[in-house]
Amino acid sequence: MAAVTSASPFARASPKMIDAAAAAASGRPLKLLTLLLVVQGDRVLLGMKKRGFGMGKYNGYGGKVEAGETVLEGALRELHEEAGIKATDATPRGRMLFEFRGEETVMDVRVFSASAFEGEPTESEEMTTEWFGVDKLPFDRMWADDRHWFPILLDGGFFRGYFEFEKDKIVDGVLERTADADTALKAFGASK
Ligand SMILES: CNc1ncnc2c1ncn2[C@@H]1O[C@H](COP(=O)(O)OP(=O)(O)OP(=O)(O)O)[C@@H](O)[C@H]1O
């Protein structure tokens, strides 16, 4: 898996690129979102988004963090609402900032993984539920950033990144494997 990761053009972050991402993000309003990947052995649970933002794309489960809940609680709630299961060992893995050209707000996505859950994955109004082998992930039908950080996640690692999008294409980005989850949470340029 490490070979796949180092093949990512964004994985070789120069200090200059990191500074540029930090400058782009600093002071901008952040929208806090979660993304939870259920990884069990050599398979990953993904859902195809049936409506709204990212419609037609496969992704993990997640959404906006609501007032009064922690980020982890938000991640678990979204997984339950969208896939009908309760993860019992969710753990933070990464943080990604996404900027869309022409938009002031930067998406602040907190990525979690889990391997154990209660219940049966069940399609919801928002998402389907499908298992994919780790070697058969549908990257062509996922957000463009996913192919860059998934190998780190599957490898057991932690990561932080910043990607600038023009519609659904990446125009610039930086991705860094971090030593632990705490370091991943110190995203480029975000004040908290
Ligand atoms: C740009 N590159 C990206 N790469 C990978 N994942 C991305 C993403 N951009 C957004 N995401 C995820 O997509 C979901 C949107 O959630 P979204 O439907 O907006 O939230 P929520 O369910 O609260 O909305 P509604 O209740 O329908 O308004 C949420 O998991 C978020 O982390």
Please provide a written account of the structure.
The chain has 192 residues and is an alpha+beta fold. 23% of the residues lie in helices and 34% in strands. Strands 1, 2, 3, 5, 6, 8, 9 and 10 form an 8-stranded mixed β-sheet that branches. Strands 4-7 form a two-stranded antiparallel ribbon. Strand 9 (158-166) and strand 10 form a beta hairpin. The longest helix has 13 residues, at 71-83. The radius of gyration is 16 Å and the shape is globular. The structure holds N6-Methyladenosine 5'-triphosphate (N6E). N6-Methyladenosine 5'-triphosphate binds at residues 33-35, 52-54, 59, 62-64, 98, 107, 109, 143, 145-146, 165. Residues 33-35, 52-54, 59, 62-64, 98, 107, 109, 143, 145-146, 165 line the site of N6-Methyladenosine 5'-triphosphate (N6E). Pfam families: NUDIX.
Features:
single chain, 192 residues, alpha+beta, Nucleoside Triphosphate Pyrophosphohydrolase, eight-stranded mixed sheet, two-stranded antiparallel ribbon, 23% helix, disordered N terminus, binds N6-Methyladenosine 5'-triphosphate, Oxidized purine nucleoside triphosphate hydrolase, hydrolase
